[in-house]
Specification:
The structure is a homodimer.
Chain A: H1 3-10, H2 14-22, E1 30-32, E2 35-37, H3 41-54, H4 59-70, H5 75-114
Antiparallel strand pairs in A: 1-2
Chain A binds a DNA duplex through helix 2.
DNA sequence: CTACGCCCTCAAGCCACTTGAGGTTCAAGC
DNA sequence: GCTTGAACCTCAAGTGGCTTGAGGGCGTAG
């Protein structure tokens, strides 16, 4: 099949497939008249990549996952990739929740104390608040 | 003051200051012998930028915020920037929470059904699950 | 006058693509 | 056989918010 057909079958864009090939994530297929021709195994491989991207794994992580799939590593390896990923998702959620609390506090601080002052004096923009990255 | 002093005073790196100048976020200061010389007003401006970055505003948003500060717009404008930002933070949290639930479900699915099979057959990697961006 | 620290510019790298320019191949219809 | 149009090709640049590095200039203290 040609690249456009593969793209639809796996649910990714054509340039993305070429990009994955260029970085070595997807192997280079055969060519006919300069055009890429894919076998059905590519649908599987690319669908797996897309599935992992849907789960927000990075391409580096996906590269490791693909290697473990090809090695037919035990499933526990896959699980540990997922667990590590889950921890990083939870870390991000915690960071965002803390940010949410900070911003929400500033907004309500503005409502109660600013009383329509000018922007330069708004409590939201005062750097004195404790916010360290 | 020179760029290194400003950087310490405002808590940002020297290249970051030059970067902000290059994209027009910070105005170009006077020069002496080719070197940038800053007045104390730059500490204020840069600290404000840093404060907004700490709150995870984008540089585009910060540019709008700085404009409203210079215009001495009413504080309600600032608040509406913050509220919009808060909504986008909450949207991201919701996305991450849904992702967290998906990945957590896959991990426990693996624990209960995979029983140590090989990676290609692990439930975590099966694209059949409903996961659409 | 030398050594050192700070400053300068410009370019490239990060991530995961997308977009665009400019050209080639393929399949269908006449 | 010829034309048209879609799909394909490569290569380069853009996105965001910086960081890192190369290769050099300036200022001052000893």
């Amino acid at each position: 099949m040609r690249i456009g057909v593969l793209a639809k079958a796996a649910g990714v864009s054509v340039p993305t497939i070429r990009y994955y090939e260029s970085i070595g994530l997807l192997s280079a297929p055969a060519r006919q008249g300069g055009q890429r021709v894919y076998g059905s195994e590519y649908v599987k491989a690319l669908s797996l990549i897309r599935h992992c991207r849907d789960l927000d794994f990075s391409l580096d992580e996906i590269s490791d996952i693909l290697a473990s799939v090809q090695r037919r590593s035990p499933c526990s390896d896959t699980k540990s990739f997922a667990e590590q990923h889950l921890r990083s998702i939870r870390r991000k959620i915690a960071e965002l929740r803390s940010l949410e609390a900070t911003v929400a506090a500033l907004v309500s601080g503005c409502e109660t104390t600013c009383c329509g002052s000018a922007a330069p004096d708004c409590v939201i923009l005062q750097p004195s608040q404790a916010c360290c990255r």
